[in-house]
Design goal:
By secondary structure, this protein is of the alpha/beta class. It contains 21 helices and eight strands. Bound molecules: adenosine-5'-diphosphate (ADP) and magnesium ion (MG).
Length: 436
Amino acid sequence: MGASSAQEIWEAALGELQVQVTRSYYRTWLEKTTGLSYEDNQFVIGVPNAFVAEYLNQNQRSLIEKTLIGLTRPDIKVLFRVASARETTASAPTARPKGEARYTFDSFVVSNSNRLAYAAALGAAEDPGRGYNPLFLYGGVGLGKTHLLHAVYHAARANNFRALYVSAEQFTNEFVSAIREKSTEEFRSKFRTVDILLIDDIQFISGKEQTEESFFHTFNELHNANRQIVMTSDCPPKSMPRLGARLCSRFEWGLVADIKPPDFDTRLSILQAKAEQEKTEVPLDVLEFIAQRIQQNIRELEGSLHRAIAYARLFRALLTPELAARALEDIAGKGPMSASLTPERVIKAVAQSFQLTPDDLKGRKRDRTTALARQLAMYLLKEGTSCSLAQIGLEFGKRDHSTVTHAVQKIAAEMDNDPYLRRKVFDIRQGISPAK
Ligand code: ADP
Ligand code: MG
């Protein structure tokens, strides 16, 4: 990936991380992060605030570095930095490297599941305020709502319209601070002076009375002036819990269009488009396999593709449906290595890399090298197999599980500080890759 930008690498890493942590965890800690820079062995990740920086630094540095190793280099070090608002919006689609946006109409695959939403969004971007107003798009998670909204933004700007994109959460936050700083007039004029207002995840404001009230006025002003409003939500207006009746009926004034989960052929087309975007050759049978496996969420579809690609790259293996299966299987929680990885294989590989024998590792020798090799083998077994701590202990001459826990923690901590050890782990992992 020589020339890839930090953001591109980070997006690939996020694809992988997404399948390694729970959805709510991902949303809370990782979703709003960006790849700011990648130079030498330092990878800087932009985070929304100091709290997230602190949290990720304390809890996820090693997982994140592990993930990045496969995409960058074995001695990669991450640094978390609070990104300025400009850097954050830059990663949301405005300014991609080489000025190329990711979420555009061109990169949106149209099918029966989203045709109406697509056509209406395109219409809004080309002729704002003249067609359906407001345009209300709804659908499940990861089905392309944000993508479409960004696409409207880019197309509208290209047509010289003033467009403003905000998440409903951002809208709410800005409103709250405007009240606190007594600058509500500024707040309102910011929204009043646009041709197209795009609000993502509008369900967020429902039930927040003051925000609803403020949005109600903004909505009326814009609508009266024939300015275009496009909103997205995870459900139709009527199903939004606690949404005030006035707003609910306004949301239905124009067009309410839904986006459904894509069918198989669409999923395949999307995967093909993504592989092409990444300039990565992925065999058709692999794409078919992934399209079959992931059905409900296009973000997961992409995440799985990223994961399969990263997995093949990590192990320098040919990307086949079998390898993809393994990459996705591990999502179920067996860790980044192969299911067929046996303790013997790991112990042998580690022993070899330290010029020791498997018996040395299983035995009682306690010199530094042997002890380190033993701990490393325990760590790799924990990481790469579904063996329990007790089982791992048994492999090493009936050591007990607390010894294994200690080893795993120690190696994880040392890997943070020791590039030599990271390199070693990387090499061993490669040696026991499923390709061999
Ligand atoms: P939502 O906002 O509905 O949760 P997103 O717009 O964030 O979903 O989409 C999730 C991912 O899936 C994005 O990377 C997006 O580019 C991709 N995606 C969704 N729908 C399509 C589509 N029809 N064509 C291409 N990519 C899509
Ligand atoms: Mg979204």
